[in-house]
Amino acid sequence: MAKNLPPSIQVFIAHGIADNIVPVEDAPGIANIISAHPRRQPGTVHVELLPQCDHNYRGDATNSLLESMQSWMKKSTESCYKPRPLPLPVSSTRRGALIVVEGLDRSGKSTQVERLVQHLQARHVKFPERTTAIGSMINAYLTRQSDINDHAVHLLFSANRWEIIESILQSLQRGQNVVCDRYAFSGIAYTWAKGLPLDWCIGSDAGIPIPDVTLFLDLDEKTASARAAYGEERYEKRAFQEKVRHAFYQVESFVQYAGGHWIRIDASGTPDQVWQTIQRHAGNVVSHGPMALYPLDLEAMRPALPWTKEGPEKASL
Ligand code: Z5A
Ligand code: MG
């Protein structure tokens, strides 16, 4: 049997929302990684045969693998915290997809979001939404017309999302795709980069829907700072942006852990090059059809949160 094995066999176990990698103690020669994948059907299995594995393993591989997976699933299911999907009222229409574009300042989010909105005929949402009463306070703060305490302004950014979430859910339920220019992940990354405790930064957005996909436009601070209008608003300083970038990389890992679908995209290409990638990933999500929406859940993410109580630069990548 071992002779005929392909160089790589992959088996996924879907048992919850966590994305774990654990050793398979009982089948060392066959595989040593099992990963639970949040978006697979329960019961499907994914094992990776690593190149350094002993390909000459003999014995009842299937049984030994299944036994070890069963015991692992039992253990991990017992300890796994599972948030419930957000209750979207039953509707005969297939719900729309929630697509978020995130990234550092001047990474080209708004440029790409405009194209995506047109392309999908989607609803366009921008955070911060500066036209509401809360949004106008945020705008005054960002343009340095007012000073607001770091905790208070974080809560304003969150409140600005909460005042619009209900109508986003309604759009999704009507079957309309929604594209957001920034989301809660900006809230977490920017405030955490200021040094406030990470779990506090997440807490005020706990309960909002995890997007069907987050497209993160990754750009180094030097390139970003050469783009138009950089430096006009409060946070547009290179040292701070570097911390924010570091924070976003961490956010990526614990959002993925919680079942979120996050794609990091190189934003240093031309707008057309970036668009090709955006269009492909967004198209995949829309054509596959969105699944249940899960809430952003602090408890579900906690095992993946960096241990540090300090800013993201102190957390290991
Ligand atoms: N913030 C927060 O702290 N907490 C929160 O919860 C939220 C936000 C939601 C304002 O956000 C601030 O709020 C932000 C985070 C914080 N920090 N700051 N400062 P905003 O989204 O309103 O910021 P903005 O004024 O729209 O800027 P932006 O979003 O950073 O820019 P962008 O949308 O990423 O880039 P762009 O407008 O599409 O393009 C910028 C320029 O680059 C423009 O001249 C383009 O023509 C050019 N461009 C675009 N793409 C390219 C490529 N590929 N190559 C070359 N040039 C390009
Ligand atoms: Mg923008």
Automatic annotation (TrEMBL):
Parts of the chain that traverse the membrane: none
GO molecular function: ATP binding; dTMP kinase activity; nucleoside diphosphate kinase activity
Gene3D superfamilies on file: P-loop containing nucleotide triphosphate hydrolases (3.40.50.300)
Keywords, alphabetical: ATP-binding, Kinase, Nucleotide biosynthesis, Nucleotide-binding, Transferase
Catalysed reaction, written as an equation: a monoacylglycerol + H2O = glycerol + a fatty acid + H(+); a diacylglycerol + H2O = a monoacylglycerol + a fatty acid + H(+)
Pfam families found in the cross-reference section: Thymidylate_kin
InterPro entries: AB_hydrolase_fold (IPR029058), P-loop_NTPase (IPR027417), Thymidylate_kin-like_dom (IPR039430), Thymidylate_kinase (IPR018094)
NCBIfam families, A to Z: DTMP_kinase
Highest taxon of source: Eukaryota
Annotated organism of origin: Malassezia caprae
Record has Kinase as a keyword: yes
Thymidylate kinase-like domain location: 101-278
Involved pathway(s): Pyrimidine metabolism; dTTP biosynthesis
GO biological process, one term: dTTP biosynthetic process
Protein name, UniProt field: Thymidylate kinase
SUPFAM superfamilies: alpha/beta-Hydrolases, P-loop containing nucleoside triphosphate hydrolases
EC number from the UniProt entry: 2.7.4.9
Entry similarity comment: Belongs to the thymidylate kinase family.
GO cellular component: cytosol; nucleus
Keyword RNA-binding: no
